[in-house]
Structure formats: structure tokens, C-alpha cells
Amino acid sequence: MIRIRRSAPRRWLISPTHPERAERLARALSVSPVVGQLLINRGIDDTAAASMFLRTQLDHLHDPFLLREMHKAVERLTRALRDSEPILVFGDYDVDGVTGTSLVVQFFRTLGRDVKWHIPHRITEGYSLSKGAIEKFAKEGIKVLITVDCGTTSIEEIRLAQELGMDVIVTDHHEPMATLPPALAFLNPKMHDSGYPFLGLCGAGMAFKLVWALAKSLHGQNRISGPLARFFVESMALVSLGTIADVAPLVGENRVFATFGLAALGNSSMPGIVALLKSAGLEGTVLNAGHVGFRIGPRLNAGGRMGSAAIGVELLLTDSPHRAEDIVAELEIANTERQRIEADIMAQATEMVAQEHDLVNDPVIVLADDRWHSGVIGIVASKLAEMHYRPAILIALKGDKGKGSGRSIPAFHLYDALGTCKDLMDAFGGHSHAAGLSIGRENVAALRRRLNEYARGVLKADDLVPRLNVDMEVMLDQLGRDVAKEIQLLEPHGYGNPSPVLCTTNLRLAGDPKVIGKTGDHLSFYVTQGKASMKAIAFGMADRYDDLVQNRRRAMSLAFTPIINEWQGREAVELQVKDLKYEAE
After folding, report:
1. Are 495 and 248 in contact (CB under 8 A)?
2. Does residue 501 surpass a pLDDT of 70?
């Protein structure tokens, strides 16, 4: 039986160090041994691979024709362009689907060819293709249907499309089932024998691969010029948006997309992007993955979460700055409403966990309620999973049906777990750390019971202890400005390439800590270690103020990320605190 304290402190998991390997790698790359060790911790200890990681280039992208069925997709689209056949792009309603759909449509527009597009309404149509939508497209005379970020599980719908005279090209990245859809071309790097060397592409990345392959075929060469060349520069912004917002791993090709895409995003002339950056207060800012994940992405996603994501595609496709500003104003209203609903659901779910859920014996939180909005429960599930450090699934009930969204922890593969309960659900999909499902009201209790039975068999008590992964222990005098700048070469950070976390011990508090921030949420204090002294910033940790003052005479350990703060033309290394502990006297 799993037993775990509800308020267990975070356990620091310090990666093993390899001083000789780190030193050897550092010398080959002309960087500090600290950076050498950070690279090794990320599974990069080959000089060539490390050089590619630190010096990302566009030519690090793989040939799209490595996807086994890409030739079939390109051949069919070439014929459709030649014969002026109607084409429709069908995307998912999240940021990944919206950006990927916009990218494909804009590509065809750049070729001088307008195509139709459709994003399903989250509430009235649901996820992916439906038979009603297929029948509608057939009546409209569509001959080629391209999916973006969906279609892998739409077996019956795609079979119907083929029967009604449509050729379907699936571009997707979700986990395939044993039976694949009968599409003309199925482009998914996770398909068995797909032939593709990188499995981490998101929907927007797969959309990019399709249009890149088509452009190469139309040009008859790798080098693309003219309007299409400009399109591909702008398209990097859309791919980075989709990649980061979809929490795709920022390694391999995704690192290329994020690196060049963030730069393209900040310099974009697309009216929709310009309006989004202005709305988020990011004009003129050097963008990082956090800006996309927490400020740009949620705004673009607001339309889809609250109902229709079509407004997001319209924003990214419009040529009118005035229309872009109007759409962004609508999205701001939707985002504000989303935040209000999210707060209500979070309060209700937190109360339900306290009153109804046995956190000691049931490792998986499964909650359902008629009051909840299906477009917002995924955010709350993520917060619950972080708060209680265990998988969490929230289900929005309506009538006799429910739509659910789940988030997980590293030790629990959510998609595999749901697979053991597939007889209880109408549909499900996703991956290791996030999934969605449809279920009948009468099966919710059974899903909760069986998921917990499964989890008790695969999870250990330690798996449910909040942990902080620490890269290495250092001394303060190792963290000069040059080393801190070298550490910045590891950016952009995100899933798969987290911000480096270092730790150091035997620190002493210098002076009095200060509570800072407009709402008094943060702490600022100085620490010393021998002759070295540095400023530490602890965001969201103002509640540790009294504790810090009371223990000021005790030695402490800090886990932190080194950052460079620029003020009045001067640069100084500071410690962005992740956790702090007091050492035994």
C-alpha cells in the first residue's frame, strides 16, 4: 500500500558528476566545465552533438522525405494544384492546431492558391474529424483533405471520406493505435516504421514538414527563393508557437524550431503576431519560451478553450492590422473569462480533493462535475497534478456524457494507463504526460477505481514525493559572468531541456531579507560563502520570510538557476532560487 505525507518536502535529486568527461568536453568546446557537465546531464557527451546543441543551425533539420509516406502526399497535392482541385485543411482547436493550420493555409496562399480551412468547435463538434463534418466537406466538393494535429484515431471518419471521393492526408503526432486510419498518406513520426529519426515533432512541426516537402518538389531543389523563402522565415514563428505551447520536447529539431522561431516571432510583420505581442506587453522584448508558454500561448488559446478556435486562425491569416487588433481584443475578453472560470474550477476541485479523495491510498486524482467547462479543465488538472504531485484527471459532465483532460507526473505514463481502461471510454488520446478522453457518466466511478488499481501496481511511494532535479553542486566563486553567459547557450528551455538547476551549501544570510513585488509575493536577500557574495531572488516565496529570519544564523543550502541581471548598463550574476534548506547544526 502506498503511504505518503501530504506535505512532503521536495527531495533534491542531484545528478552524478563526471569531472573528467566534463573537462574534456569543455576543452573541446571552449566552454567552462560547468557547461560541460550540464551537457552531459542532458545526454550530450559527444563533441559533435554538443557543438550542434550549442550552435543550432537551420541545416540541422531533417529531410521531410524521410517520412515514409511523404512522397504520396506530395504527389497528390501536386496533382491537386495542377488540376485546381478543392483542398481543405482541418486542424485541432489548440495552439498547435491553430498555428499548424494557419501555416498550411498561408503556404497555399503564397503559391497563389486559396484553400478552405476548418477548426472544430470544442463544445459542439469536439476533437478531430466527425462524420457530419466529412459529409459536409463532400457536399462542398472537397477532393483533398489535410489534417493538422489530428486524424490518427479517426479511422471510421477517414474511411467515410475516402468512400465519398476525398483523399485524406493525415499530419499528426499523437500516439497511433494498432489500427491506422485508411488515409492516402499517414504522416506521423510515431508510426511504426515511419522512417523518421525524430519522434518529438508537434502538429505545427508536422505541418511545416508537409509544406516544406511540397515546396522542395515544386522547386526541384533544396534552395527556395522568392515569396516562398520569406514565407518559410515567417513560418518559423508559427512552428515555435505551436511547439512550445504544446509542451513538445525542446531538443533535436524542436530546438531548431524554437531557437529560430522565437527570433522570427519577435521580428514578425504578421499583423496577428504584432497585435498578440502588443497585447501581451512584449513589444521589443527578446522572447523566450516562457513568454510563449505563459503570455502569448494562453491568449491565442483562449478562443479555442472558451468555444471556437477559428478566431485564432483568422488572426494569424489576416493582412489587416485593424482586424488583428479587434480579434486580439476579443481574445483578451475570452482569456479574462477563462481565468475567472479556471479560478472557480480550481477552488471547487481543491475542495473536492480535500473532502472526497483519499490521497494516501489513491495515487490518481479523478474528479467529475456538471459545473465545469471542458475547455478549461486541462489547466486545472495540470495545477492539481503539480500541487499534489500525482496524476490528475478532471471530467466536465453534461447530460449522460463527460469530457475529460488529464495531466501526469514523470513516473506515470498517462496514455498507457488509460489504455488499460479503454473499455470504459468512448474515446481517448494523448501521450505520457497529458491526455484527453470522452466517457459516459455511469463509467466515471469505474474509471477512478481501475486507474487507481493500476497505479498502485506501478507507482512506488517515492514516485509521489515532490522532487527537484539538480544538475550539480557548485561554489559561488565558480559562477562568474562569463560562466553565466555560457549557460545561456543552453536556451531555449522547456520540456526536455529544462533550465539548469544548480545547488550550493554552507551559505550564510547577509543582511535582512526583503519582501518585494507589487503584491509582495517575492523575496530578495544576499548570501555569502567564504569571500563570495551574491544576491538571491526567490519568486513566489514570500511566505518563507519569517522562516528565513528565524534561521538566519544557520547555514543554508540553495537550489537555484544563475541569471544575469542588467541594471543601468551593468551586469551581475544573481541566483534565482528554486528551493532552500537549512543545514543541520
Report:
1. yes
2. yes
Q: Is 283 exposed, middle or buried (0-12, 13-18, 19+ CB in 10 A)?
A: exposed
Enter the pTM of the model. Answer: 0.88
The average confidence (pLDDT) of the chain is 93
Q: What is the pLDDT of residue 75?
A: 98
Residues 451 and 495 in one domain: no
Both 312 and 456 in one domain: the answer is no
Q: Which amino acid is at 135?
A: E
Q: Is residue 6 part of a domain?
A: no
- Helices 271-279 + 252-266 axis angle, to 10: 80
Angle, vertex CA 505, rays to CA 499 and CA 507, nearest 5: 110
d(CA 156, CA 163): 11
544 & 427 share domain:
no
Q: What is the CATH number of the domain that holds 307?
A: 3.90.1640.30
Dihedral of CA atoms 185, 186, 188, 194 in degrees, nearest 10, equals: -80
CA distance 113 to 115: 6
CB crowding 493-519: b at 16 or more within 10 Å, else e = bbbebebbbbbbeebebeeebeeeeee
CATH of the domain at 538: 2.40.50.460
